[in-house]
Write a structure and sequence with these properties.
Chain lengths: ~70, ~140
């Protein structure tokens, strides 16, 4: 992993289109601003991990039981 | 002439399909980015559920449900990039499905309302869209009421 030390208000570039800026620091929290082209999706890592975990469970969970199908038909 | 293909799926046995039946999911489903060709399967036995069956890994099959059946107030705002990626002229033209996680106990079945699957049936393209800062859950119980 590439590691940088930055001060509040400083930024760094990823390629020539993505800018990551340190906006402010407060205790153990950092506010980060990201400027990126719209086609680059930016989400919190936890969100990705949550969705990947859920998809992995879902992808091999079989087919709905008769009971569940009947309930959803109501 | 283009040839039909056949897979041996874990859930449905043998499935024969034509090239035009293939749903392309270029970015894959998150966590399954190596899988980009799927079949959208409908079966009267399972209505209102539908299925997203992987062609390349026949053991992988996602159960889908109309999110409005889980949350009647469900709303999705497709951003212009997702719209463009899917080739949709209007944001509300796509079919929207939630991916269902089944459990042994039917009461444990959940739907992912946070990252719906959006499908453009006119060009057979699909994408799992992550709603930005959404209040929806990845595991909303199907039978909450």
């Amino acid at each position: 992993m590439l590691v940088f030390t930055r001060k509040s208000g400083e930024s760094l570039m990823i390629g020539d289109e993505v800018e990551v800026k340190i906006l402010s620091l407060s205790g153990d929290q950092v506010r980060i601003g990201i400027s990126a082209p719209r086609q680059i999706a930016v989400h919190r890592s936890e969100v990705y991990e949550l969705i990947i975990r859920q998809n992995r469970l879902a992808g091999r969970s079989g087919v709905p039981s008769k009971e569940l199908v009947a309930k959803l038909r109501k | 002439m283009e040839m039909s293909e056949r897979i041996e799926s874990t859930n449905f046995g043998a499935i024969t399909f034509e090239p035009e039946d293939v749903l392309a999911v270029p970015d894959g489903v998150l966590g399954f980015s190596h899988l980009s060709r799927f079949l959208l399967i409908e079966s009267e036995d399972f209505e209102p559920f539908k299925f997203l069956q992987s062609i390349d890994e026949p053991v992988i099959c996602f159960t889908l449900i109309d999110p409005l059946l889980v949350d009647e107030a469900y709303r999705l705002e497709l951003n212009s990039d997702d719209q463009q990626k899917l080739g949709l002229d209007k944001p509300d033209e796509g079919l929207v499905y939630s991916v269902v996680t089944l459990a042994e106990d039917p009461q444990g079945a959940t739907a992912n309302l946070y990252a719906p699957l959006v499908i453009n049936t006119s060009n057979m393209r699909g994408s799992q869209v992550i709603l930005f800062d959404s209040q929806y859950s990845v595991d909303q119980p199907l039978m909450s009421s």
